[in-house]
Amino acid sequence: MDILRTILTVIFILISLFLAVVILMQEGKSAGLGAISGAADTYWGKNKGRSMEGILVKLTRAAVTLFLVLAVVLNLGIWS
Prior knowledge:
Layout: H1 2-25, H2 43-46, H3 52-74
Helix pairs in contact: 1-3
């Protein structure tokens, strides 16, 4: 069981680092102020999910989900 705990801890640390990098790569929400003047109806506004920003949002959601699941599993106390 100690080997499995060590492996999950290493994965947890790697996901933490990955999550920090992905969050720092994202643009701030202030960059979307063009929606006030109607600039959000452009091609990029409609296809945001397919852009790099949309991919980063999806990666963030997946990493956060894995992070939370691993945090719960590692804190269950079944390892000792």
